């Protein structure tokens, strides 16, 4: 599935629900930092995370999850995951185990 389609699906789902929007897939996750060099582009991933109830932060040191490759200093205790983790969670409507998504 193309990344643009994922964004449209989330947007349409949000617009079609009655009452409060119920998509809270990332609501209980730590702050998420998305690498500026991520693919799909950072703005698209940020919007997807936010549409799914997650919170994105602009500084890595505050984040518990880092999405995409990042060459700077990494704080201890943060998880470094592939962009595919976000995309797969959304397409499966469930949080995927991080095994297989961890970046070194």
TrEMBL record:
UniProt cross-references to Gene3D superfamilies, sorted A to Z: BRCT domain
Instruction: List the CDD domains hit by this protein, alphabetically.
Output: BRCT_microcephalin_rpt3 (cd17751)
Q: Which Pfam families match?
A: BRCT_2
What does the entry give for GO biological process?
mitotic cell cycle
Q: Which top-rank group of organisms is this from? A: Eukaryota
The residue ranges of the BRCT domain are: 21-103
The cross-references to PANTHER family, in alphabetical order and at most eight, read: MICROCEPHALIN
Supply the name of the protein. Answer: BRCT domain-containing protein
Annotated organism of origin: Scyliorhinus torazame
């Amino acid at each position: 599935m193309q990344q643009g389609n994922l964004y449209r699906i989330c947007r349409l789902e949000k617009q079609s629900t009655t009452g409060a929007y119920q998509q809270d897939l990332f609501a209980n996750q730590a702050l998420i930092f998305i690498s500026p060099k991520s693919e799909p582009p950072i703005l698209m991933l940020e919007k997807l995370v936010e549409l799914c109830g997650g919170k994105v932060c602009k500084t890595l040191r505050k984040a518990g999850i880092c999405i995409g490759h990042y060459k700077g200093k990494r704080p201890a205790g943060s998880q470094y995951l592939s962009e595919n983790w976000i995309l797969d969670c959304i397409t499966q409507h469930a949080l995927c185990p991080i095994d297989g998504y961890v970046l070194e």
